[in-house]
Write a structure and sequence with these properties.
Strand order of the largest sheet: 13-19-18-15-16
Bound molecules: copper (II) ion
Largest sheet: 5 strands, mixed
CATH topology: Immunoglobulin-like
Number of domains: 1
Mean pLDDT: 83
Helix content: 10-25%
CATH class: Mainly Beta
Strand content: 35-45%
Distance between the termini: 31 Å
Order of helices and strands: HHEEEEHEEEEEEEEEEEEEEEEEEEEE
CATH superfamily: Cupredoxins -  blue copper proteins
Low-confidence stretches: 1-46
Number of strands: 25
Shape: globular
CATH architecture: Sandwich
Length: 272
């Protein structure tokens, strides 16, 4: 869970860069509390993952960095609700802090058995005319069924979350629902069929963007503010590590996890 101290420095950081998160900072601690709650998926996954005792598990650690020139935030004139959203909105699709790339989900693919599958629930809030968090992870269907997905409107204006399942270059609508007023919310099962990524947009405000990366085993992590990540309890073996960013794409590498060992897997995303 992020601390207030962390958020203070994050705020300073944002001042130097885009104003994307300015209207959102007040709500960040709320969002952090929401995503910090954990849901237990447990048992045998419909996708084949099996929980089992892991003897002499290993650990994978690493740091994700960004190399090159950061793209400029995208500028959006605000057509609707400027009294709440501001007259203009600059959205930074790529954010880095002292070279550490933010908003990256790291997953180990192809792990078929291991520690209990505990995953973050997917709860998004629309606050300050942005969806928070910007990038999250959620589990695909587990032993207890489809994961629950919740979106709540915290603003005194209408937001219309449009949720897509991304499949290659295509995408299909999962939900398209108006949340007309502050406190409006929707919560139901997220039935993702093939995609690895969910994209959330607002049909009222074209500068609102959020992504959710789906995982089918418990070996995943969101990078911290310093770009670091850690996955523990990993059965020894050879795996494909995938670092995913919503607009920079994927960087992959092979990792070998040894008994009770720590494997370091640093990843660099070059500028596009
Ligand atoms: Cu909106």
């Amino acid at each position: 869970m992020r601390t207030d101290t962390t958020m203070t420095s994050r705020r300073d950081d944002m001042k130097r860069g885009s104003r994307i998160f300015k209207p959102l900072l007040a709500s960040w601690s709320v969002a952090s509390r929401i995503v910090a709650a954990v849901g237990f998926i447990g048992g045998t996954s419909a996708f084949g993952y099996q929980e089992t005792a892991v003897s002499d598990p290993g650990t994978v650690v690493g740091r994700v960095s960004f190399q090159g020139k950061l793209p400029e935030p995208q500028h959006f004139p605000v057509q609707k609700n400027p009294e709440v959203c501001g007259k203009e909105f600059d959205f930074a699709f790529v954010r880095a802090v002292s070279g550490a790339l933010q908003d990256v989900a790291v997953v180990l693919e192809g792990v078929e058995q291991g520690k209990p599958f505990v995953a973050l629930p997917t709860e998004i809030v629309a606050k300050g005319c942005a969806f928070l968090p910007y990038v999250a992870t959620t589990a695909k269907k587990g032993a207890q069924g489809w994961p629950t997905f919740k979106i709540e409107n915290k603003d005194p204006v209408m937001h219309n979350p449009h949720i897509y399942e991304v499949m290659g270059a295509g995408r299909r609508t999962l939900w398209n629902v108006g949340l007309p007023e502050q406190g409006s919310k929707i919560e139901k099962e997220l039935r993702v069929l093939k995609g690895k990524v969910i994209k959330i947009e607002c049909d009222q405000h074209d500068f609102m963007h959020s992504w959710v990366r789906l995982v089918d085993n418990p070996y995943f992590a969101m990078v911290g503010r310093d770009g670091s990540f850690k996955m523990d309890g990993v059965p020894p073996g050879r795996y494909k590590l995938v670092a995913w960013h919503p607009t920079l794409g994927e960087q992959t590498r092979e990792v070998v996890v040894t008994s009770s060992g720590t494997t370091t897997a640093d990843v660099t995303f070059p500028a596009k």
